[in-house]
Write a structure and sequence with these properties.
Blueprint: E1 2-8, E2 11-15, E3 18-21, E4 26-33, E5 39-41, E6 47-50, E7 70-73, E8 79-81, E9 95-96, E10 103-104, E11 114-119, E12 124-129, E13 149-154, E14 159-165, E15 177-183, E16 195-200, E17 208-213, E18 219-222, E19 238-239, E20 242-243, E21 261-266, E22 272-277, E23 282-287, H1 288-292, H2 298-305, E24 307-311, E25 318-320, E26 326-330, E27 335-340, E28 345-351, E29 361-364, E30 370-374
Antiparallel strand pairs: 1-4, 1-30, 2-3, 5-6, 6-7, 7-8, 9-10, 11-12, 12-13, 13-14, 15-16, 16-17, 17-18, 19-20, 21-22, 22-23, 23-24, 25-26, 26-27, 27-28, 29-30
Length: 375
């Protein structure tokens, strides 16, 4: 079983005048969970998580097994399918076996293979659906149009308020939409509704960043197949001293880690997006202005604007606090560290043998001094 943990922050020092969490932070196990890549906590303390069919075939809904992709976690240890039982149960399941080979179901109004759940600054829950799921044999099927999407939920009424479906020119059949962050500043788009930034971490296709105008529903890509968004050639992580390789599918030979841009975090002022591949240790950033640009030269400008911020360790999920620090897990060191943009350094936040694979996190430094994370 994987564990969700709560990190409680103690402020005791400063860097460049900013309060910095020390490595004396305590680590508390909150409850056991089935494998989940993310947890997000509302301003009122409600907790939501997801169960990706793209990572575990036991999570794939078959149409009869009532597997849920998203759930609300309650204090008594129960999980309630969210935002409804119906949306978590696509007719005939998440995989369409009438195609050869089987593909992800093309339902726009049902959850297929949810990889991330994130609450935005307005406390709306966003569900990121890859449109892909694993067969019982462990084959990750390709997505069909209608499957890859971003769904917004009003958690006050527990109802879907917006569904943005990605065209196949943005979410390719072999894309794997991984994590998402939101910038709701009204002046950054003509629609005034803000944007979402999404990583494509696919082990098979072109990695990159997907940008979504939340007002118009339009979406586009940048850093498409760029070196910084891809896994480093020949990259091998070490866990407890042992090299780790990747199994791409049933009957296929081992490879080095091929997973591209995965972890993502928005700077506190919204001006920079931080990202990095799982298949590498480097932290990158890019001005968000370059990602929102859709001019003819926009991809050239984006490629030229990527900054190498140094090594962060092998990590998946990132998070930002109100000081502007960028937090990232480090599975090789059983720790979480944070990057300080003011002095370009990584600093240890917490280290514990129970910390292994830190994915999507939720920080609440501004009110409680806590970090929720999936581990």
């Amino acid at each position: 079983m994987l564990l969700a943990h709560l990190l409680r922050l103690f402020i005791s020092t400063t860097i460049n005048g900013l309060p910095v969490p020390t490595h004396h932070s305590s680590l508390k196990k909150t409850r056991r969970l089935t494998p989940v890549p993310g947890i997000t906590v509302s301003k009122g303390g409600r907790k939501f998580s997801n169960y990706p069919a793209g990572l575990d075939p036991n999570n794939t809904n078959t149409g009869t097994n009532n597997r849920h992709a998203v759930a609300e976690l309650t204090a008594n240890g129960t999980e309630t399918p969210y935002p409804s039982v119906e949306i978590n149960n696509p007719p005939n399941g998440a995989i369409n076996y009438t195609t050869t080979p089987p593909t992800g179901a093309n339902y726009q109004d049902y959850l297929i293979g949810v990889q991330s759940v994130v609450l935005d600054p307005q406390d709306r829950l966003w569900i990121l659906d890859t449109g892909r799921a694993l067969t019982e044999e462990g084959t990750l099927v390709l997505a069909s149009p209608g499957g890859p999407k971003l769904i917004g939920v009003d958690i006050e009424s527990d109802t879907v308020i917006q569904t943005i479906v990605f065209p196949p020119t943005v979410a390719y059949p072999d894309s794997y939409l991984n994590d998402v962050r939101f910038d709701l500043r009204p002046h950054i788009t003509d629609s005034g509704k803000g944007v979402a930034y999404i990583t494509d971490s696919s082990s098979e296709g072109r990695n990159g960043i997907v940008i979504v105008d939340l007002g118009t529903g339009e979406s586009w890509r940048h850093l498409d197949g760029a070196q910084e968004s891809r896994a480093e050639r020949g990259f091998v992580p070490y866990v407890w001293g042992e090299p780790k390789y990747y199994i791409p599918g049933p009957g296929l030979p081992l490879t080095t880690v091929p997973l591209g841009s995965d972890g993502i975090a928005l700077s506190a002022d919204g001006e920079h997006l931080y990202f990095g591949p799982v298949g590498g240790r480097t932290l990158y950033s890019i001005p968000t202005e370059r990602l929102r640009d859709r001019s003819q030269a926009s991809e050239l400008l984006a490629l030229g604007a990527v900054n190498n911020r140094g090594e962060r360790g092998v990590s998946d999920g990132f998070e930002t606090d109100t000081n502007g620090f960028i937090y990232a897990g480090n599975m090789e060191q059983n720790e979480i560290g944070f990057h300080n943009p003011k002095n370009a350094s990584m600093t240890l936040f917490v280290r514990d043998p129970r910390i292994s694979w830190v994915d999507t996190s939720k920080s609440s430094f501004h009110c409680t001094g806590d970090v929720w994370m999936r581990n």
